[in-house]
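Action item from last meeting closed. Structure (289 res):
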């Protein structure tokens, strides 16, 4: 049903060929298909007039269920603003859903506006300027987007919140895993970012506390959850979006490596987290209008 609605809308929406930024700075998986589908999703979402940014996020995100998982789709030299709707990882899935929801909230229905908002979410200060400008770490992504009023960190508002302190420098410690860091300027840019997150203190909800009803009630459908890792030099290793069932129990909608696609996990979030022993808990963010 979702696919048929989008197909009909896509057929009715003209695909605009000129990009919102220089062509060399913008990369699509399939320009014609991607721009047409973005326009169709936005026309649909704007027409539904969903008032809540979180509900809008969840609605848009669920349109991507079943899309194949693919890692490293943002990588390449030089750095480009990559738009791909045919394959997603956990980060690009969340960023794409947020950018679409935010654009629909502005009552805009052009892929150009989506591209503008995607760049705002993905890059420091909202402007792409090389590999080092990408918000690689969740802590950095959160700080930058909160500072510009795009999201709120609502973790401290949720019952049973705790705090953890980490020095975040995983990328420079494991530079061999990131081909772009073979460039000394890119490595120095990443190290500069990391220097701002030494002994970084941030809030989180422990996995064990996710079973409590007061915690579950405080979560909303459409909240973005960042899954906090046990690794000592990193904060987050996975992202997803909350979808609550009819009983108000939160589940995780995410681009799953193990499932190979975007899925709504069958076990509730509390059980999903408990089964993943490398995780400590979650951080929670909300899109703002």
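Sequence:
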């Amino acid at each position: 049903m979702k696919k048929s609605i989008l197909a009909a809308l896509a057929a009715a929406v003209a695909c605009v060929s000129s990009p919102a930024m220089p062509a060399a700075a913008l990369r699509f998986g399939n320009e014609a298909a991607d721009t047409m589908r973005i326009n169709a999703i936005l026309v649909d979402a704007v027409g539904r007039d969903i008032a809540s940014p979180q509900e809008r996020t969840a609605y848009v995100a669920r349109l991507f269920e079943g899309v194949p998982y693919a890692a490293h789709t943002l990588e390449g030299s030089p750095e480009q603003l990559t738009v791909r709707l045919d394959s997603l990882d956990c980060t690009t899935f969340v960023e794409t859903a947020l950018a679409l929801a935010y654009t629909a909230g502005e009552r805009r229905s052009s892929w150009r506006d989506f591209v503008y908002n995607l760049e705002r979410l993905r890059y420091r200060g909202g402007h792409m300027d090389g590999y080092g400008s990408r918000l690689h770490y969740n802590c950095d992504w959160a700080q930058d987007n909160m500072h510009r009023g795009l999201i709120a960190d609502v973790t401290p508002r949720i019952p049973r919140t705790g705090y953890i302190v980490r020095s975040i420098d995983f990328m420079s410690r494991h530079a061999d895993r990131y081909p772009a860091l073979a460039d000394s300027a890119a490595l120095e840019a990443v190290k500069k970012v990391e220097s701002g997150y030494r002994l970084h203190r941030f809030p989180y909800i422990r996995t064990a506390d996710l079973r409590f009803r007061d915690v579950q009630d405080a979560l909303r459908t459409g909240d973005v959850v960042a899954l906090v890792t046990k690794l000592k030099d990193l904060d987050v290793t996975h992202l997803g979006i909350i979808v609550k069932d009819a009983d108000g129990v939160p589940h995780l909608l995410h681009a799953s490596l193990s499932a190979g696609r975007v899925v709504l996990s069958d076990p509730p979030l509390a059980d999903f987290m408990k089964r993943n022993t490398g995780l400590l808990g979650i951080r929670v963010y909300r899109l703002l209008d």
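Note appended to the action item: The beta strands are 26-28, 81-83, 151-153, 162-166, 200-206, 224-229, 236-244, 250-256, 261-264, 279-287.
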